[in-house]
Task: inverse folding
């Protein structure tokens, strides 16, 4: 996110108004020179602490005095010099990490002297303690008077080594509990020098009733079996903060593998909305209790409506819901998360920027409140002088400050309420309120409001065991979905067919309650979903296979954008980098990442298509470009993971034929591709053979997320009996009729629609040269016509026609006739008509052939329009899962135009036996 402008200070502003500042100067004036000038870093803190220790202070006193010196420095830099929020929070976080590291080292040294080092029962290796910072400490966002939320975990159970004489052995558990207690005392205990940080250990497993330290195995069992939804938000910002030596250890990666699946689920997890509502309600109720009888406490910049907590909740909710499928959203700092949400188009840029400005403003106000007396308070002071000082140090007048504060809080509250479905409504809880209608009456009322066909389906549905066995909360969500759909049916805004298909779709997903939660939380998604299902049958099947993609319907940009290859590949690379940063980028994770991205993008195209926003040609363009992009990314990732690769970038060409080559892919089209390499390294044959086998597996393997593509490689030299990958020289010789092993005419027909989908610029140029040589080679036109007609007859025999119906693809006057006619025109005339050499698609080449005089006036144009119309008919039939054989009269004019093209290209040659007249 662009840097958020920081409020400026006016000349003469001073931290001296702060009572904390005054106390510190009275008490520690002699110690100020110990801290090096400027913003304190870890080295400066270490030097100051060491000097204090050298003066005879113990560790606890040295750390406390260091804290006072750092706070005073930050107060001056912030209030008098306009220090950035990130500098203030980052320095406080460094202080906490440094203090915890020193405290941990001392505690362990004391315990080692008594009991020896803790050892793993299985391996005998030393066992490490990890102090995990939660919340603001984990996110490096500590404020001036923050407490630090800690959870302490050790690697493995066992016992300590004991002293030299064998005495003093204790269990690892007892050792680390004592260590945590000692660290907590060194950091948090109040002494004459105050404290370093208040320590809060209540977030540990089982809360205050649980042990102070747990083993990694115990933590894993707890999170799997007993971890609650609100704890997922707590663990979202967690990281190991001390001891410093343990932060980069291999064991920390094991800890991450335990925490990540708990926080981020593999699916879109809208069920957490209710958990966040409960958590937020508790926060609001606590704030209200504190305000009871104290109206001045309502101005809490953290916990009141529109406060810091609501910004954090807004960001964390989207992260937890989507972070399982979109790893690039996984980050701890709030401002960075806002930027990532905006970049991923999960939040409007203007909204993200507004929340970022509000966050910076409120956090700076919070710091100034705490600068006054070093109290853990977030409430604006009631003293006019204190309030004026806060405003002045932020470069504002008092009234201007209050107006800006109110504006920020109102914007935050609006966004938070919008996310959770509006402001919380008061509920009747008195003895006369009643419990409301029971489940049966709810079902009855919902069914009664439906049209007859929908009502009958719901009655059948209701009796099914899988519906009857739903949890109460899931049943309530289901009824809300059905009730809302019924209201739209009454209004006429959705179709009955859409409602029936929604029931079919929901029936398969009843056990996956997060989808019910999504549709309840996002009424817009539900409405668009019902409309989409009502438009065609195939979208319903696609959504049954890939239900997670329905969340794409929440995007406002969905219907106004087209596929953007550069943005798509950037997102994929960012997600892979995020997986790599957490050690999750194994082959299976990358395969699933590619498949999820592909399914989501296909669904976006499908939604635009069904809504009438793009044409059939644009659908084909976008799906073909998507395939190109996925091939490029898959080749890169797969090559990087090839064990015997001998160069950084493979010298491989992927040549696309058929619909891929002609950029006419449809939904579910397979890819006709050929692999050829141009690499003289002696290791090349073995390396590229292994690579193409691995690449084919990556493209076609079915994982839990489905597959990417079906691929067909029979157009390679010698077809299915040939090598899966050949040298480019061998490929060129085969195509250009050099040597005894050469291509057939039908392979040259395929070459008219071929293109180099992937490869270096040199390889692309070589392929273009080969293709041009093939399609411009001298040919005897009569012989060429005979061979093409023979191939057409073989295809016709394989697709027997019906005398009563017209097959828009295979029958005479159908799409295949257009394609064969164009192939003949290219192979027969490209040598003398350069305009036919480009792979411009059937429609474009027909127009060019007519301009070149190879077709009678109007024939090429009419055939191009007919081909376009036949594609539309075929496309719509496939969307509705209907046969592509229709009544001849529906496309009589189009068929006539294609037959005229056929007679112009192949005079006196019948296209096919006659079909029943229109």
Result:
């Amino acid at each position: 996110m662009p840097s958020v402008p920081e409020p400026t200070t006016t000349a003469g502003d001073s931290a001296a108004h702060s009572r904390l500042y005054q106390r510190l100067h009275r008490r520690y004036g002699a110690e100020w020179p110990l801290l090096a000038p400027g913003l304190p870093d870890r080295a400066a803190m270490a030097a100051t602490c060491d000097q204090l220790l050298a003066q005879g202070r113990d560790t606890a006193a040295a750390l406390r005095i260091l804290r006072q010196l750092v706070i005073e420095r930050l107060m001056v830099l912030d209030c008098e010099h306009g220090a950035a929020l990130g500098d203030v929070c980052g320095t406080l976080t460094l202080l906490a990490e440094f203090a915890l590291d020193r405290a941990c080292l001392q505690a362990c040294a004391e315990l080692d002297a008594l009991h020896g080092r803790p050892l793993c029962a299985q391996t005998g290796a030393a066992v490490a303690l990890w102090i995990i910072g939660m919340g603001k400490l984990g996110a490096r966002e500590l404020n001036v008077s923050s407490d630090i939320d800690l959870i302490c975990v050790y690697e493995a159970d066992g016992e300590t080594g004991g002293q030299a004489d064998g005495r003093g052995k204790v269990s690892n558990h007892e050792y680390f509990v004592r260590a945590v207690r000692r660290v907590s005392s060194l950091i948090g205990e109040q002494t004459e020098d105050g404290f370093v940080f208040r320590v809060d250990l209540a977030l540990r497993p089982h809360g205050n009733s649980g042990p102070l330290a747990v083993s990694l195995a115990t933590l894993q069992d707890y999170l799997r079996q007993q971890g609650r939804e609100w704890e997922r938000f707590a663990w979202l910002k967690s990281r190991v903060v001390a001891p410093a030596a343990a932060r980069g250890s291999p064991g920390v990666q094991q800890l991450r593998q335990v925490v990540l699946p708990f926080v981020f689920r593999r699916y879109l997890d809208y069920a957490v909305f209710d958990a966040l509502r409960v958590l937020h309600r508790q926060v609001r109720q606590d704030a209200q209790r504190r305000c009871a009888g104290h109206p001045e406490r309502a101005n809490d910049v953290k916990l009141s409506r529109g406060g810091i907590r609501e910004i954090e909740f807004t960001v964390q909710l989207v992260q937890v819901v989507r972070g399982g499928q979109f790893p690039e959203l996984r980050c701890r700092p709030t401002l960075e998360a806002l930027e990532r949400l905006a970049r991923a188009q999960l939040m409007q840029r203007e909204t993200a920027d507004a929340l970022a400005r509000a966050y910076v403003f409120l956090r700076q106000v919070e710091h100034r409140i705490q600068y006054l007396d070093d109290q853990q308070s977030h409430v604006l002071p009631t003293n006019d002088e204190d309030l004026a000082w806060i405003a002045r140090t932020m470069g504002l007048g008092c009234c201007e400050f209050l107006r800006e504060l109110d504006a920020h809080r109102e914007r935050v509250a609006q966004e938070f309420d919008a996310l959770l479905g509006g402001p919380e409504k008061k509920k009747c809880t008195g003895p006369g309120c009643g419990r409301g209608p029971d489940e049966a009456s709810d079902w009855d009322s919902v069914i009664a409001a439906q049209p007859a066909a929908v009502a009958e389906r719901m009655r059948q549905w209701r009796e099914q065991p899988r519906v009857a066995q739903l949890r109460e909360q899931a049943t309530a969500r289901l009824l809300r979905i059905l009730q809302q759909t019924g209201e739209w049916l009454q209004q006429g805004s959705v179709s009955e067919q859409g409602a029936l298909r929604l029931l079919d779709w929901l029936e398969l997903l009843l056990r996956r309650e997060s989808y019910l939660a999504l549709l309840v939380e996002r009424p817009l998604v539900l409405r668009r979903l019902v409309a989409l299902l009502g438009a065609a049958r195939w979208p319903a099947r696609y959504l049954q296979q890939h239900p997670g993609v329905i969340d794409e319907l929440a995007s406002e940009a969905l219907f106004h954008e087209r596929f953007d290859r550069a943005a798509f590949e950037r997102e994929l690379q960012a997600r892979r980098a995020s997986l790599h940063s957490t050690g999750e980028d194994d082959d299976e994770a990358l395969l699933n990442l590619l498949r999820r991205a592909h399914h989501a993008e296909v669904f976006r195209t499908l939604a635009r298509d069904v809504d009438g926003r793009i044409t059939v040609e644009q659908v084909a363009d976008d799906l073909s470009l998507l395939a190109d992009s996925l091939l490029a990314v898959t080749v890169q990732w797969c090559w990087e993971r090839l064990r015997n690769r001998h160069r950084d970038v493979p010298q491989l060409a992927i040549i696309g034929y058929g619909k891929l080559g002609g950029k006419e892919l449809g939904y579910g089209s397979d890819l006709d591709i050929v692999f050829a390499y141009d690499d003289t390294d002696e290791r090349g044959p073995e390396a590229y053979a292994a690579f193409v086998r691995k690449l084919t597996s990556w493209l076609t393997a079915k994982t839990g997320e489905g597959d990417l593509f079906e691929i067909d490689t029979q157009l390679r030299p010698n077809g299915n009996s040939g090598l899966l990958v050949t040298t480019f020289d061998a490929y060129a010789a085969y195509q250009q009729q050099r040597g005894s092993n050469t291509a057939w005419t039908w392979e040259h027909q395929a070459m008219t629609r071929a293109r180099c989908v992937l490869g270096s610029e040199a390889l692309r140029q070589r392929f273009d040269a080969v293709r041009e040589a093939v399609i411009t080679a001298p040919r005897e036109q009569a012989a060429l016509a005979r061979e093409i007609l023979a191939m057409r007859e073989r295809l016709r025999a394989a697709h027997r026609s019906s005398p009563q119906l017209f097959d828009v693809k295979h029958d005479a006057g159908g799409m295949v006739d257009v394609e064969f006619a164009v192939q003949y025109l290219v192979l027969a005339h490209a040598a003398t008509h350069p305009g036919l050499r480009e792979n411009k698609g059937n429609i474009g080449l027909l127009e060019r052939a007519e301009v070149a005089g190879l077709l009678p006036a109007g024939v090429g144009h009419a055939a191009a329009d007919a081909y376009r119309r036949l594609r539309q008919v075929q496309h719509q039939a496939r969307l509705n899962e209907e046969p592509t054989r229709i009544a001849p009269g529906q496309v009589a004019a189009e068929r006539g135009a294609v037959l005229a093209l056929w007679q112009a290209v192949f005079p006196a040659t019948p296209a096919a036996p006659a079909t029943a007249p229109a």
